[in-house]
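Our platform keeps sequence and structure together, in a single record for each protein. This encoding replaces a full spatial description with a residue-level series of whole-number codes. We quote a single record here, exactly as it is kept in our systems:
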Amino acid sequence: MQAVSWSQVEGWQDDSLIGARLALAQSCVKLSRQPSWLPACRASERLDDLDPAAVRQFFEQYFTPFRIANSDGSQTGLITGYYEPLLHGSRVRGGVYQTPLYKWPAGRKAGSLPSRAELNRSGILRGNELVYVDDPIEAFFLQVQGSGQVLLDDGTVMRVGYAGSNDQPYKSIGRWLIDRGEITAAQATMQGIRAWARANPSRVDALLDVNPRFVFFREMPNHGVGGIEGPIGALGVPLTAERSIAVDPASIPLGSPVFLSTTRPPFGAQANAPINRLMFAQDTGSAIKGGVRADFFWGLGDDAGDLAGRMRQSGRMWVFLPNQ
């Protein structure tokens, strides 16, 4: 990392910074225990989120920007997206609710569980059903994202979070479909895979078995659909839509403000429009490795999923570290 001036942070003046103080407050829940963070966290409590000039001045006073580079010295990298799925389900199996999400099987140690196909056919998981949802492909995407919400048939909401995996390697079902000529590379998005599954319901189980990795869930505290608080990230605080990112903690300290310069995915009225936005490194991901590499949290539901599933953009990043 190299310290730079604020004028060298490309797009810094473009962000309205609305919502940034609230995301910072989540980071401060954890980081204010560190002496270097305490002054900034205390000062942030006095900020007016609707006064962008004051918020900008605050960051410029309490932080120093550092340009992030990759190990080879390059300063651009891959920016992908993720979201919190919203599924429909029931605590009781019946009707359209036939696909279970599972909790960790009691008495099983990490590393002792077989592949997805074996788990689904062996009976190991019987009795560990957490909730039943109405779509196997959506349940699979929930496993990829790691957390989400389930709108239950009684009108209540269950929030589910990651509770472990079978430690099997991840294999791309999109690549499997491409290799067999089922879809094109351009169609290998979440939306394209979903469309294939809708057209080939009898082949969905075989498709999902291609990926041996299997994720388990646990029920989390919930604040209702679209509630103020997002899912809990690796930092241990709720994520904020369009203000939180997942990073490689070996390159960027968790909790840090990170200015991101990238573009929106090629979708919708704002396709490929610039994103110059202050984000917060509040999560991690197994595929997020390296310096200039981030996963952009778009929020809850299908609209967020449409953006997340299509996002594979180039970007640049600056981390803001507290002044000593």
Summary: Residues 84-220 form a domain with the Ribosomal Protein L25; Chain P fold (CATH 2.40.240.50). The longest helix spans residues 20-31. The chain has two domains: 2-82+229-322, 84-220.
